[in-house]
Structures are given as structure tokens and as C-alpha cells.
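Input:
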Amino acid sequence: MSSSLFFEDLNVGADIPALIRCPTTQQLVMFGAATGDYYPLHYDKDFAERAGLPGVIVQGRLKASFLMQMLRDWIGEQGIVKRIAVQHRGIDLPGNAITCGGRVTGKNFSGGEYYVECDIWVENPKGERTVKGTATVILPTRSDA
Amino acid sequence: MPGLIGDAMVELRFVSVDELRRSIGKISTSPPIEIEKGAIKKFARAVGASVTLHTDDDRAWPADYGPMNAPEDMLFGIEFTYTPEPVESPAPTVLDGGGEWGFIRPVRAGDVVFFTRKLLEVSERQTSMGKTYFVTTEIVWTNQRGETVAKARLTDISY
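Output:
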């Protein structure tokens, strides 16, 4: 977990430190158990193949959770994730390293809060973006510290 | 197709797209859900979260606010566990198309939340997977004080 990130420290165009995850089939099962998502696409290879997929696939919400972790690690404990939006453009398979990334696209002050807008994404090992999205975080200012 | 959700067997019920469209605007409500420390830790371990806010009994955000915080993304999965009615789909394979979540207030261990689900839209078009349906729902989570804690607009893709 990083130390606090302040609104003044960021410029538009700044990269969010990447988060790399390599979900295993075990993690897919753990996520299913923790969320109640027992849809067989994520643990039953035969079911997944009958559905036209190459094998069991990583849950979309697990990838969204990875993106949330990336954001929380970046903004520190004084920051707040206010919004996340994701579109799942492709599947990811367990056993492959996937990279979560992002970039600052805007900063603004509204309603007493300092907002930072970001583009976020998940890339597979081929560099293809299987998730595209945006996020909004609130950061403290150095005068708040 | 039955699926184990929470303590109950919940069906994935196949319906025609016309029947599904007749449910547009219908709101269903989950039972009350207690946010437990053990469930928070289990979720944090499952996603590999590194934030001690969600695993350390003595931490909370903001500091000295009390019990352990649930990661916001824990709400992503609550609806699977506590969905109040059969999940209806016009096709046998359902993929998560994504969504947008707005987090309004923290959720902490000991809170009791519930959610409402409303079907907003059903559309269809031809894709590489054949006839494909896009089903959009709105989810609103509320805590025991009647405060809205989060809202989401989600899309499932069925083929």
C-alpha cells in the first residue's frame, strides 16, 4: 500500500502504477465461493467448452476487483474510489498474467472535493485490452494533510 | 439450471426475450445481508487484496471510525449470493458485459445492507456468437440506516 497521494501531485497524463495478477483456477474457485458466483463457466471446463470457449474463464468481476486494487494501492488510505466503469471486451484465461493499467485524464474540484478522472484497462499477455473503463477517485490535498 | 447461491438453490431460468421484456421496470428486493468480518476477510483473500483495512481487525478507514471496512468491490458479488428470484436469461450462456458502480458511503463489518434490482433494458443483435442479448439492470444498495451506499448499472451478455 502506497503512502497518501495528493491531488497536487498529479498531472493529466500521469500513469497509474500497473498491477499484475496471474489468476489461477484455484483463485477462480475462491472468488466464486467468496461471492456466491458458482456459474460453471468459471470452474467446469466441459461446460465452458460447450459454450464455445477455450476453457474456464476469469470472472469479469474478479478483473474489476483487480482494477479496484490497483486504484486503492495508487491513491493510498486517504483517497476514495468513487466510481468505476468497465466494459468486458474479451475473455481472460487462468494461468495467464494480466496487467491492470490506467492513466489520469482529468482533474477537477467540485462540491468541496478534489476529483481525478482516469482511464483504466486490463491487458492480456498479448497486449490486447480485454477490459476498458474509467474511474473517478477523490484525493486529499496537501493543505488537508 | 440450478446453482448454489448462499444457502438456497437458485435457478437460471430460460425465458423468451418477449417474456423478459415484460419484466422491464419490475423491482425485486434482496433479503437483509449482514456484512460479517469473516466474509470481508474471505473476499479480500480471494481477490488477493493487499489492503489491511479489510483484513486487520484493528484498522478502519477513516482511522478511528470503528469496525473493519468492506472493500467496495465486495458489493460486486453480494447480488450473486442473495439474488431473491430466479435469474432469467433468453439464452443458455451468460457473460458479464461490465457495468458502472458508484460508491456513496463506506460499508463496514456489522452493517446490514440490502439491494434492489430493476431490469432496465433488453436488446439483441447478431454477433460472432450468433443472436446475442444485452440485458441491463440497475442495482441500488441501502444500509440499515436507510442510506444509499452504492448504485450500479450492469449489463449481461447472453447467447
